[in-house]
Write a structure and sequence with these properties.
Layout: E1 18-22, E2 27-28, H1 29-36, H2 42-50, E3 54-56, E4 59-60, E5 67-68, E6 73-77, H3 79-86, E7 91-96, E8 100-105, H4 122-131, E9 140-141, E10 150-156, H5 159-167, H6 169-172, E11 173-183, E12 190-199, E13 205-208, E14 215-226, E15 230-237, H7 244-251, E16 274-282, E17 289-293, H8 298-302
Parallel strand pairs: 10-16
Antiparallel strand pairs: 1-6, 2-5, 3-4, 3-6, 7-8, 8-10, 9-10, 11-15, 11-16, 12-13, 12-14, 14-15, 16-17
């Protein structure tokens, strides 16, 4: 298994239109908010929690009795920004700054438009999102996830940042980790798959154990848990080829569930069993190592217990 590189966690949430307060003594969240926000009724303050407008140290918290410790930062997001975000369908904002937007994309949502230009793709929604603030703003595509793959994606907010990320992608990306639910019981705790991938005219990717002029691809995986029917894997990409994980798991006779194109005969999730859980890379402006994470759906775990 490939060595997992050290990374710096980035637990920051969106920083736009957030008013921050510092906790000075132990208390619970609702009590703190009622003491701090004196111009709203108790029900209005509760609604801030329900709508996910309250952040503690950058994490959205909705529990009224969430314990607070001195020194923690409580942020309250404005109604305008909250309404703008909740208008997004099938995508959740994980982080936004002047250079990038990071999202968690649901399965079934296209990254960018294909044959249906009016479809509410991630790209189209984020374009509308930034134009709410400034009509001249744009969004730029850095990389893609398949429609039926969920998880972490990053978009650039300027063409300069997009070009920087794409040109240096191999050098700046420290980690790309997926969670995959696959058919059958995998005996190995961890292993590496290596092959050469070529794409046919019908847009299907084929794998060869020897160099046939295709693109070399390397995939590492660790088994998280499993039963006689399914195994749950943590998959780390050493290379980033089209359909790499799906093809490589077919190679070892354990295709991703729901992936009929690459050998699956079951679909217990009613979707593709592949989720991009972690992306860590050097920020294009600060050059600091940042990491964004979106947990895999709970059904991935329940099906493989």
């Amino acid at each position: 298994m490939a060595t997992i590189k050290k990374r710096r966690k980035d637990n920051s949430s969106l920083k736009k239109d957030i008013t921050s307060y510092t906790v000075e003594e132990p208390t619970e969240l609702l009590a703190f908010l009622l003491q701090t926000i004196t111009n709203k009724s108790r029900n209005s303050v509760k609604s801030l929690l329900t709508r996910g407008q309250v952040h503690v140290d950058g994490e959205i918290i909705t529990q009224h009795n969430h314990p607070l410790k001195p020194g923690q930062k409580v942020g309250i997001q404005s109604n305008r920004e909250s309404i703008k975000q909740t208008a997004l369908i099938g995508i959740t904002l994980l982080h936004e700054d002047d250079d990038i937007i990071v999202i968690n994309k649901d399965a079934g949502v296209l990254s960018v438009a294909a044959n249906q230009p009016e479809e509410m793709t991630a790209y189209r929604q984020l374009t509308q999102y930034v134009k709410e603030e400034n009509r001249k703003k744009r969004i730029f595509i850095v990389h893609r996830l398949d429609r039926d793959t969920s998880g972490v994606m990053v978009f650039a907010k300027t063409e300069e940042v997009k070009n920087s990320l794409q040109t240096n992608w191999k050098e700046i990306v420290e980690e790309r980790i997926y969670i995959a639910l696959v058919e059958g019981e995998i005996p190995e705790k961890e292993a590496t798959i290596s092959s050469w991938l070529t794409e046919s005219k019908s847009m299907k990717v084929y794998s060869s154990p020897v160099d046939n002029g295709g693109k070399h691809a390397v995939t590492h995986y660790k088994k998280i848990q499993g039963n006689e029917h399914y195994s749950l894997l943590e998959v780390e990409l050493e290379t980033g080829r089209k359909n790499q994980i799906r093809v490589h798991l077919q190679d070892i006779d354990h295709p991703v569930v729901g992936d009929k194109k690459y050998g699956s005969v079951t679909n217990p999730l009613n979707r593709l069993g592949l989720h991009a859980s972690t992306l860590a890379f050097l920020h294009p402006r600060t050059n600091e190592l940042v990491q964004y994470h979106a947990p895999a759906p709970s059904t991935f775990y329940s099906k493989s217990k």
